[in-house]
């Protein structure tokens, strides 16, 4: 029994490690693909070379991040067959088709147009190349759509039937499965998180180069665009997060109890615990700093609304409170720092100091990885808060794992750690080298040569406009 528990724990750690590495790349590429489409569209519309410079600058980075995302994602699919074969067998009739749709739609769309986007600048016309860039951006959205549909179904399973052999079978409507109760909230929350992640990385790079040279046109433009995104999207994300939390309270109350640190029920209004140390042995939050009844106000919009606690949940069904409690606070804390950064940039614009306020630029550089930390923290809240289930409420994690020995899983986990840190560590190091180099102002037409398609040269106005 002890060896089985260790085997399951190691299998969970291995999947958590690989998916954490993978998740940071799509979280960046989803937003970056859209940013590239905006840059190319603005360049073609205005003819201003600064947009062409930035497109070329970020296109190189996108190519590397996209490649690392694909490679790291392939590994996870194998783990469904190696470490989680029972889950794959039982849930395969539902999640298998959804993941296949992701490949048939998103991946094929991205793969079909990615080559044109990366290497077709000299070989196709501007409209086709812009179409390819848009197609890749749409492909990243479609990919997120299907993957989040699968994950959301595992969080809020509906529309299924249990067959005689114990498999989950789709019911009368696939629409019920795809658009399960938590999916719309999770999709909006994740996409906004991806856009914020990209905005703060782009903003950090722009701020870094502004600290070196305040007159760099590319750095000024990317920093300004990133701060506009932070200003607009950060408050939207807070609102979306509130709706997502209310949905989670309805369908996964134990997760919200762990997020809030409510070991006990509160019949006359629950406090909002800002900080504290979860003590699961004594079932309390030690050294709690709290606001009376504020949790009821947020979750029920009523100061005196009762809120149930983990004392209403069987011990065997409780998620790990400490991990969920602190991951949630990291995510929310970073969200408010993002909001503060956006407001700070508004003040800088009003005072006409957006490009010459070093303290703002230094803070923006520090906030560069904040989006990645926030999405990982949110993923931990989502997945650890679902425990002890893989399919919430109906299939336990302990019943989902393959019958493997702990030493075998430990050996593969060690191999993953060594390979991942070596391969992806080098990739990230190279990305930082690219970001350290400022955008070059002489790249007026993306590569300095006319773009042709079937012998037709781009309109002279566009080429000449690239020097503006």
TrEMBL record:
Coiled-coil region(s): none
Protein keywords: Cell membrane, Electron transport, Heme, Iron, Membrane, Metal-binding, Transmembrane, Transmembrane helix, Transport
An annotated GO BP: aerobic electron transport chain
Annotated TM spans: 15-36, 57-78, 98-121, 128-148, 192-211, 223-240, 323-347, 359-381, 408-432
A GO MF label: heme binding
Membrane topology of the entry: Multi-pass membrane protein
Subcellular location: Cell inner membrane; Cell membrane
GO cellular component, one term: cytochrome complex
Record family assignment: Belongs to the cytochrome ubiquinol oxidase subunit 1 family.
Name this protein carries in UniProt: Cytochrome ubiquinol oxidase subunit I
Organism field: Iodidimonas nitroreducens
